[in-house]
Amino acid sequence: MDEGIGAAAPFAHVPPSIHAVQLRDLWLRLGREVILRGVTLDVPTGEGVTLLGENGAGKTTLLRLLSSGLRPTRGEGRVMGFDLRDGRAVRDHVHLMPVDGGLYPDLTGAENLEFALKMHGQRGDVVRALRRVGLERAATRRVRFLSAGMRKRLALARAHLLARPLTLVDEPFANLDDAGRALTLDLLEDLTAGGVTLVIAAHEPHLARRVASRALRLAGGQVKEA
Ligand SMILES: Nc1ncnc2c1ncn2[C@@H]1O[C@H](COP(=O)(O)OP(=O)(O)OP(=O)(O)O)[C@@H](O)[C@H]1O
């Protein structure tokens, strides 16, 4: 039995939405490049999705759009019932774990987690979270001195502490050893068991699909069932 981090917040204020993601003919242009070309997609709440696609297909871009880091050029989108253009509401309900972890390099491991909790007005057991990912010794070390795999573990601990209803994870298995991959699967499983909807961009479908069984492929700017 896994030791839970025990911080999953009740999201009683989340409006009932049977869909975690609803996109309608969504287009996105970045500079001269059109990355998304009319994406239409429904992801029911609680249904885990593995997002596949070649390098440069647009997976990270789509995750950034779903977390309101980018605005659609055309089309409509809602996440957890909120319009994608409503950045504040989206940020309150969606967590993106970027491929590099998106951590603050000059803060320690513990400070990164404490700061994330504070930003979201949440409480959580940071010491326990660090222990859960085997990073007790990183509590007082600045992130800039951690290895890529350690940063990944720390970012996972943060995603787990925050447990946003829609959690987007970009390449969670990259830079991890076997133990790290097993731990990642455990933590992601915990999230889904707690009702979190996961979208995982990954190049390892055999791993990602163990926790997010529906597979989608992004190619030519469009999303299709894989
Ligand atoms: N800020 C930007 N401005 C212009 N083009 C961008 C920007 N960010 C990404 N792109 C382009 O968008 C396309 C999709 O990139 P993205 O990072 O989303 O792909 P990906 O599927 O996540 O790739 P990978 O598997 O390599 O991580 C690429 O052609 C990339 O060059």
Automatic annotation (TrEMBL):
The record ties this protein, via InterPro entries, to: AAA+_ATPase, ABC_transporter-like_ATP-bd, ABC_Transporter_VariousFunc, P-loop_NTPase
Q: What GO molecular function terms would the record report?
A: ATP binding; ATP hydrolysis activity
The keyword NADP belongs to this UniProt entry's keyword annotation: no
Q: Does the keyword Lipoprotein apply?
A: no
Task: Give all residue intervals belonging to the ABC transporter domain.
Answer: 21-226
Swiss-Prot/TrEMBL keywords: ATP-binding, Nucleotide-binding, Transport
**Could you identify this protein by its name?**
Heme exporter protein A
